[in-house]
Design a protein that fits this description.
With 205 residues, the chain is α/β, with parallel strands linked by helices. It is built from seven helices and nine strands. It has a single domain, classed as Protein tyrosine phosphatase superfamily (Protein-Tyrosine Phosphatase, Chain A, Alpha-Beta Complex), CATH 3.90.190.10. Helices cover 32% and strands 18% of the residues. The strands form three sheets. A five-stranded mixed beta sheet has the order 3-4-7-5-6, with helices on one face. Strands 1-2 form a two-stranded antiparallel sheet. Strands 8-9 form a two-stranded antiparallel sheet. Strand 3 and strand 4 form a beta hairpin. The chain is globular, with a radius of gyration of 16 Å. The N terminus is likely disordered. It is an enzyme of class 3 (hydrolase).
């Protein structure tokens, strides 16, 4: 496989200096440096998320973010971008995925957590389309998707990822500043103009 499989398929809970156990959300994994994916974090997972020093969360469910979670993102100055994708077998919207990808290619938003309810289908589709943008072959895209979805993998999701036209995303790049910015070692992402970016739903001052 051309792409190097990511380390850290799932972080185990670990102890802090005061003996407290930090527990990651279900289906948590690192997509790449500074980019994470998971299912919906429980309140008990918030101390773990704090260790990631997140700048942004991409939330892919239509339901309102719980009050406790809103307080968490506000107190840690995290931007919350909500894209309300229904958790059904209906086809995901191309426009929604394109908007979410625009968040993912902007270095200013990193570190980022992507999550839906279980971290399988909606999150899997977004990560799969990101992989296509990164020139992954479909076999590798589907293999990663199925690793998280397991026996709940949906043919409709894989058909969507196969059909998603990356040219839609590349057309958006015409509005970018054509300058590369590094995040971490050997990572390059394009930086958007401020006025072309989707706006976060919650942004602390």
């Amino acid at each position: 496989m051309k792409e190097k499989e990511k380390e850290g398929r799932e972080r185990e809970g670990h102890d802090t200096e005061d003996g407290a156990v930090l527990s990651p959300p279900t289906n948590f994994s690192m997509v790449e440096e500074g980019l994470y994916r998971s299912g919906f974090p429980e309140p008990s997972n918030l101390p773990f998320l704090e260790t990631l020093n997140l700048k942004s969360i991409i939330y892919l469910c239509p339901e309102p973010y719980p009050e406790e979670h809103c307080k968490f993102v506000e107190s840690h100055n995290i931007r919350l971008y909500q894209f309300g994708i229904e958790g059904t077998k209906e086809t995901v919207s191309d426009d929604v995925i394109t908007q979410a990808l625009r968040i993912l290619i902007d270095v200013r938003n990193y570190p980022v957590l992507i999550h839906c309810k279980r971290g399988k289908h909606r999150t899997g589709c977004l990560v799969g389309c990101l992989r296509k943008l990164q020139n992954w072959c479909l076999f590798s895209v589907f293999e990663e998707y199925q690793r998280f979805a397991g026996n709940k993998a949906r043919g409709s999701d894989m058909r969507f990822m196969e059909a998603y036209n990356i040219l839609r995303m590349r057309q958006c790049l015409y509005s970018l500043i054509y300058q590369y910015h590094g995040y971490g070692s050997n990572k390059r992402r394009l930086l958007y103009r401020e006025d072309s970016m989707p706006k976060p739903r919650i942004k602390s001052s």
